[in-house]
Amino acid sequence: MSNTLTIRLPEDLAKWLDEASRKSGIPRGRIVKMQLERAQKEPGRAFMRLAGSIDGPPDLSARKGFSRK
Asked: How far apart are alpha carbons 65 and 3 in whole angstroms?
């Protein structure tokens, strides 16, 4: 394995990565690699964290003025 990736992180992400590395003892590069592998295994599933968090009518057409009846 010999692919190198250089990225620029905003300050808040860089700080999080440094703290996570320090607390876990895992190198920063390994943490990034683990997160990329995790994202690869669950493509398109990020939206699921919002499932069930929205309150309101299940169908927008139920709102007054939007009914097609």
From this structure: 55
Helices (H), 1-69: 11-24, 28-41
Q: Are 32 and 21 in contact (CB under 8 A)?
A: no
- Say how far apart CA 46 and CA 41 lie, in whole Å: 11
Q: What is the rounded distance in angstroms from the CA atom of residue 39 to the CA atom of residue 46?
A: 9
Overall pTM surpassing 0.85 (yes/no): no
pLDDT in tens, 9-54: 899 999 999 999 999 999 999 999 998 888 878 766 666 666 666 6
Checking phi first, is residue 55 left (phi over 0); if not, alpha (psi -120 to 50) or beta? beta
